Amino acid sequence: MHALSIQGLVKRYRNGVEALKGIDLEVAQGDFFALLGPNGAGKSTLIGICTSLVTKTAGRIRVFGHDMDTDLEAAKACIGVVPQEFNLNMFETPETIVVNQAGFYGIPRSVARERAEKYLKQLSLWDKRDKMSRTLSGGMKRRLMIARALVHEPKLLILDEPTAGVDIEIRRSMWDFLRELNAQGTTIILTTHYLEEAESLCRNIAIIDGGRIAESDRMDRLLRRLHVESFVLSLRAPLAAAPRVMGYDIALVDPQTLEVEVSKERDLNELFAHLSADGVQVVSMRNKVNRLEEIFMRLVDRSGAAP
Amino acid sequence: MSAAAPVTGPAALPSRAQARWIGFRTIVMREFGRILRIWGQTIVPSAVTAALYFVIFGSLIGRRVGAMDGIDYMQYIAPGLIMMSVITNAYANVSSSFFGAKFQRYLEEVMVSPQPDWIIVAGYVGGGVLRGLLVGGAVTVVALFFTHLPVHHLGAIVAAVLLTAVIFSLAGFINGVFARNFDQVNWIPTFILTPLTYFGGVFYSINLLPEWARTLSFANPVLHMVNAFRYGFLDRSDVAVGWAFGIMALAAVVLFAVALWLMRRGTGLRD
């Protein structure tokens, strides 16, 4: 049984726009799954349908075996959702928001209060529990939405851009929190524009573009498909021209910076051996772009070019 | 697996009936909290307006009017004024609260939950009824400063006020579903509700009207509500009380069905 199983999902809006053109997708129980795609690809529509905030035109969705057409209440009870946009009542406090959310899931108030305390503490919001939500920072609001989504302890947590607009420190602590949650058994589906985030957290990935799944695979398998990687090398001394090394495409970006394309068949030792022999001293090296980003751009470009 | 472990979700829920009751109560209590939080907007204005009506229409103009349908004018208008406040407040509570939740998107909190549509409708209607009764109670207290209100038929009073509050809460809900901005929340009360209320026999008996106007008045649902309510207090009604309750019950059922249908269809909510 899959945590989420989608077959032939189509969404056609009243204005005729077909946001989803027949999505088939399966997410295994316990997975940490990335759903990526450019803006307008259909990610939020897909999540909206899975959380019953958007009506579907056609297709079938099952959540832990519960069909959303015939067993909607059981399906919804399994899902917790953290939306992309803030959807908090500005005039309510974090504690009230989380306790009320538990109430909507039928959780008795005494249990709801205990859980609200637990999750607000875990997300470092307990000392803000009595403040109006509108006074919280963007990062706090994001964390509050996570606490709210967890209060009924869902088996499947869907996060739509959970770290958008939060600083690096909070983002990293949210990653640790989500990893731990996933390790405890919660299936997580994540959409993000930070591809480093998806690469760091997720084991499986689907790339959606133009309302279709452009690619769906294991993260490691997908990354192995990358044939060429680009590196940026910072040099100790300026060069007048790019050094020539057989089998490597090297460009001089500025007198002290080289960009090197390295194919999968080549290794970096050989490159550094040649550079050392030519007297070129490299002081630092980084990937030009994130590996997943490179694949993402290629896949999206390819599917965009398809008829 | 402990109860607080993150994967217990649905198994930790109480029975379906209990879960629904908790969900309903949560929506109503949230609405109650909102009513109390903004009491200066929700409770006070109607009580002040009612006091002004009693002073101007009751004490000043009422003295010249004399008796209406054989009853002191101040006493005659009291049930209508109470009902007017119930109508206005039940409607306004649900339309503005539901639209506000939609506008700020926190309606999604309950929309993603497993609560069925009828519980969501019932919860918001419960909030509207609560505000209608609270304000109706406040206006009754104000009325008692100006006049005496006998109780002839307690059952009729309770049934009329509850049915009226439910009907206008449902109407407010439907308005909230369709509204796309705050102007659209105010149109119906301004252009439909207020005229219906003023022509609904709050201030006069339709026996004073010419035949055609009297016949036309029977089409106004507020006339039936006000008269059923007045009957409970004063044992006087311009309409057949049985018919009035029949019309109210039918209106409540039809409006509830429409609200549910809109929720199921997702009009303005899931599109």
**Residue windows where pLDDT falls under 50 for at least 5 positions of chain B:** 1-11
Order of helices and strands of chain B: HHHEEHHHHHHHH
Order of helices and strands of chain A: EEEHEEHEHHHEHEHEEHEEEHEH
Mean pLDDT of chain B: 90
CATH architecture of the largest domain in chain A: 3-Layer(aba) Sandwich
Level of helix content of chain B?
over 70%
- How much of the sequence of chain B is in beta strands? under 5%
Reported for the largest beta sheet of chain A, the result is: 6 strands, mixed
The fourth-level CATH homologous superfamily of the largest domain in chain A is: P-loop containing nucleotide triphosphate hydrolases
Beta strand count of chain B: 2
- The CATH class of the largest domain in chain A turns out to be Alpha Beta
Helix content of chain A: 25-40%
Low-confidence stretches of chain A: none
Structural class of chain A: alpha/beta
Protein chain pair with the most extensive contact, residues per chain: A-B, 48 and 41 residues
Specify the structural class of chain B. Answer: mainly alpha
Number of strands of chain A: 14
Domain module count of chain A: 2
Fold and architecture overview:
Chain A is of the alpha/beta class. Chain A contains ten helices and 14 strands. Chain A has two domains: 4-223, P-loop containing nucleotide triphosphate hydrolases (Rossmann fold); 227-305, 2-Layer Sandwich (Alpha-Beta Plaits), CATH 3.30.70. In chain A, 35% of the residues lie in helices and 28% in strands. In chain A, the strands form three sheets. Chain A has a six-stranded mixed β-sheet with strand order 6-7-8-3-9-10, sandwiched between helices. In chain A, helix 3 crosses helix 4, helix 3 (94-104) runs parallel beside helix 5 (138-150) and helix 4 (109-122) crosses helix 5 (138-150). The longest helix of chain A has 16 residues, at 168-183. The two termini of chain A are 35 Å apart. The relative contact order of chain A is 0.13. Chain B contains eleven helices and two strands. Chain B has one domain. The model of chain B is unreliable at 1-11 (pLDDT under 50). With 271 residues, chain B is an all-alpha fold. Classes of the chains: A alpha/beta (307), B mainly alpha (271). Chains A and B meet through helix 2, helix 3 and helix 4 of A and helix 1 and helix 5 of B.
